[in-house]
Amino acid sequence: MPRTHHLRVHPSADRLPRGEQLAWAIAEVAADPVAVPDEVVEMVVNRVIDNAAVTAASLTRPPVVAARAQAVAHPHPSSSERHGATVSGLAPDRRVSPEWAAWANGVAVRELDFHDTFLAADYSHPGDNIPPLVAVAQHTGRTGADLVRAIATGYEIQVDLVRAVSLHAHKIDHVAHLGPSVAAGLGTLLDLPPEVTFQAVGQALHTTTATRQSRKGEISSWKAYAPAFAGKVAIEAVDRAMRGEGAPSPIYEGEDGVVAWMLDGPSASYDVPLPAPGEPKTAILDTYTKEHSAEYQSQALIDLARRLHRERPDLTDPDRVASVVIHTSHHTHYVIGSGAQDPQKYDPAASRETLDHSIPYIFTVALQDGTWHHVDSYAPQRAARPDTVALWQKVTTTEDPAWTARYHSSDPAEKAFGGRVEITTTGGEVVVAEIAVADAHPLGARPFTRPDYVAKLRTLAAGVLDDTEVERFLDVAQRLPSLRADELDGLTLVAPPALLDAVPAPEGLF
């Protein structure tokens, strides 16, 4: 049975023993050598392929180009024990320091907001754990099996924290759960003793707590950089902890700690579910990926809009529509809906990062086009189309307690991230349609399986990578559990040099 760690604030006078601190409990989970179940191994491979798919599609996008340029400015000379790590797009012999590889590859994974998700008390993209874990595995000569164990730990810790502790309620960015989960995954990867991982978790948490303005108002490319930064500093935290350096303690429970001053305050308490000793780490199985390049809470509503496009094409005409009201959960309404009160969510000149967090925009375009594309659906000319702007301005959201309850349900059969749409026509007709989960969700109309992940990579890599490179990567990725250390360098994508050379890197300090 899972164990529950009760988390609350303690005054300094309590001298809270390490063994009673959440950071120590996380470190113990990381150190547990429990076997990885077959279904977890299968899903780890799926998510490695999924990350590669979105990476391929983002290789020439400006934030990724800039991050890659920063990484290559930090080359790592290979030695007998430390090899450096690969950078997405570049040849495997182009090695950089692992924290910078994690940085560049993390930005590439996150730039399009198109990989996996887990939503509960807070938000997360657990696939953000993979780039830093791969980088350190390559650097330290670990095997594919070692990496699979580490990824299972990273997912487990991030999901468990997200189940229990809301960061968003206090306007703290969700990557504050990612720093500790990466540190824990690295503890597993490197077989570190709990004492070292404990210090690394504390350092990683302390350095990754920031406000969520990165996902509010005028959203910039930092939305993609923030998770990569968390992975980078978690690697640095592990390095320091391995050298004997400590962290603020107790980092969660202290009277001037994260819970007391950044979350629910001195009287707060949380129950964090964690695997018991010897219990397998299976949290990755509760996560879900994206079929569409948009914020996860829009996935189901895109599918609903596509259905309405086929069934009621008249609703795509703003002259025939008086209003569109999306009844949905609290989080959807206040984060990507009109409840955010962000005028930028209705601005045709808004950034791509802003538009992919605007359900009024996303629903409008999916309804009119009957499809969704990671580039075309966000193109400035698409956002500025007069009939789109006219219909877009008529779309609002409202919180429905029933959908909020389903969002927070612990019952997988009840948990849902969709909503009910009511469209009132200019003739007075009210069209009502609803959807609970996205088509690609495990309980959806077309749940994603291995062929879907493979198809996603082939689709997003088209026109970017050579077909032979895609097939080479798929061969390596699908053999991940049995890869030797000298084969792990192949777990990267190599783009044609001409593709990358066509996008000059901006100059900076390095």
From TrEMBL:
| Key words, A-Z | Lyase
Q: Which domain of life is it from?
A: Bacteria
Its family?
Belongs to the PrpD family.
Reaction catalyzed: (2S,3S)-2-methylcitrate = 2-methyl-cis-aconitate + H2O
Please report the stretch or stretches of sequence annotated as the MmgE/PrpD C-terminal domain.
292-480
> What terms describe the molecular function in GO for this protein?
2-methylcitrate dehydratase activity
Upper classification of the source organism reads: Bacteria, Bacillati, Actinomycetota, Actinomycetes, Micrococcales
Q: What is this protein called?
A: 2-methylcitrate dehydratase
Lyase found in the keyword field? yes
Domain (MmgE/PrpD N-terminal): residue spans on this chain = 20-269
Assembly and binders: Monomer.
Does Lyase show up as a keyword for this record?
yes
Q: What SUPFAM superfamilies does UniProt report for this protein, alphabetically?
A: 2-methylcitrate dehydratase PrpD (SSF103378)
Could you tell me which Pfam families the record lists for this protein? MmgE_PrpD_C, MmgE_PrpD_N
Q: What is its EC number?
A: 4.2.1.79
